[in-house]
Amino acid sequence: MIKTHPWIGGTEEEYETQHFGFGAQSLKIAVRQMVEHKIKSGVKDMESYLQETLDLNDTDKLTLTHSCDKLIRLYCDRAGPSLEAIDSEIERLLQIPPNVLLPEDEVQLEQVSDEEYQKLKEEVALLRKRVERGASLEALLSAEDEELSSIENVCEIARKDMEILDLLQKSCLKNDVKMIKNATEFICSTVPFLKKSDLIFGD
């Protein structure tokens, strides 16, 4: 009559059984069965006493039996909240801390530790390869970026030189010596092995 959750077992129940000799689920079921048995036996004892001490006919006895059955159901229903509180206390008392290791599990823990250590080594090796590949790719991209920058600089210098050469050509056609000298000095400033335009033009 008392609502009882069925036993489902599980890892926690097994671990508690190894440690205490019983699990929380088993204990909660046993407590409910014990309470229900006490309620039934107490009410039935009272029913038997009344039937023996009172001069009851069959109808009265049947009425008494029905009344006692209702009383049993009422007591069982009223016991529900108290049993829920007892369940919480049982779970609190039987909860095994995660750092507690049973002797039966020590060998298994060592095996798991070895497997986890090997897996960790593999993950570290894989991570190292990824880091190396990333470093190589970064170096390659940096080199390509520097090469592109160098090419852009060369193109820019060549463009300016072409503009100066075009200006020189126009100046030669106009026979403008001053403009030719200025342009030549600019070209010499961009070429390392030419320092002064005096190498070409005198004062």
UniProtKB/TrEMBL annotation:
InterPro entries tied to this protein: Centromere_Mis12
Key words, A-Z: Cell cycle, Cell division, Centromere, Chromosome, Coiled coil, Kinetochore, Mitosis
Subcellular location: Chromosome, Centromere, Kinetochore
Origin: domain of life: Eukaryota
Biological processes, Gene Ontology terms: cell division; kinetochore assembly; mitotic sister chromatid segregation
Gene Ontology CC: MIS12/MIND type complex; nucleus
Keyword Cell cycle: yes
PANTHER family attached to this UniProt entry: PROTEIN MIS12 HOMOLOG (PTHR14527)
UniProt similarity note: Belongs to the mis12 family.
Entry protein name: Protein MIS12 homolog
Organism: Papilio xuthus
Lineage: Eukaryota, Metazoa, Ecdysozoa, Arthropoda, Hexapoda
